[in-house]
Every structure is written in structure tokens, then in C-alpha cells.
Write a structure and sequence with these properties.
It is built from four helices and eight strands. It is α+β, with helices and mostly antiparallel strands. It has one domain (2-79, 86-177): Thrombin, subunit H (Beta Barrel), CATH 2.40.10.480. Strand 7 and strand 8 (165-170) form a beta hairpin. The longest helix has 19 residues, at 2-20. The model is unreliable at 1-23 (pLDDT under 50).
Length: 186
Amino acid sequence: MRRRGVGLAIAVAVVMGAAAAAGTANAQPVDTSRIATGSPNDWLTYHGSYNDWHYSGLDQINTSNVKDLSVAWIHVPGKSTRGLQSMPLVADGVLYYTGSYSRVFALNGATGELIWSYFPELDEALVARQTHSPYNRGVALGRGKVFVGTVDGRLIALDMKTGKVAWDTKLQDSAKLTVGFTGAPL
């Protein structure tokens, strides 16, 4: 499983790194209008757009030159269970993704340099009793925040620039239901 996670990290670095190289100097607010309009340099929502197409119109990588790609950088998220299952998002040159245990990372898309990371304090006893693994499938972006659902039933908003907690709220009684949030918020 670890090999698969590293492979995903490499794929994320190569494909998303090129699109993320736009830089943060021209940062624009991420809101519903910007997501609906889309941008070739950004991937602002889990499916790429509200249309849910998982499609990018970028054509710089194609069947004749894909063989020439090489690894630009790699980021290893540390503690991982069942590999990476997160859809990375990109806004203004910053790549955001989650690892196992609801951990969030913000990376410079061009260099792979860590900008910030957030590791929520989780109820480990509760997580161990859950009916699913502690994986996480992503974040949502909006209004200057990065939103992540946690495996112990909370929704947390982080400041996009610093990773500091803006708010943290419990949405379900995970102790009673033995489930948490593994999907990306929308």
C-alpha cells in the first residue's frame, strides 16, 4: 500500500505542480462564482467544477509527450493508512490535500515546499472503534478557508494562508454512530 501512496504523491506532484505554478501573488478569493467560472491554472473543487466532470481542458500534456514527463517534486505525508485517497485542490499556485487521520497540507505547487500543515487532535480510541479506516478524501476551499471533515465527526475551517484554525465544530456523534467524515466537504 505504501508504494501506491508514493505513486499518487508523484502523480500529484507532476500533474498538479505545473498547473499550480501560477503563484500566490495574484491570489483571488475562492467563491462560488470563481468555482463556476473555472480557470486552467486552478482545480478549486473536488470534481474540478460544479458539473462534476473530473475533466481539465488543459492540452499541454498529450499522448505524444507524456513519456517525457519527470518528477518535479515529492511530498510524503507521514503516517498513512490505506494510501492517499485525497483529490488535491489548487488555488493560486498552492496545492492543498489531505492525508490519513484528516491531516491537511498546503504546498507550493511549483516547488513542493511545505507552506503549512495541520494535524487535528483526534479521539484515537474512537477512531480505532470505527467501521472504516482513518483515510480522508479531501478538502473544500472557500471564503479564505480550507474546510476538512474529520474522522471523529467534526468540520474544521482553516485559514488558507496560515493553516490556523478559524473554527471547529462537531457535526455528528461519532461515538454513538462509529462513523466520521471521510469525504471532501462541498
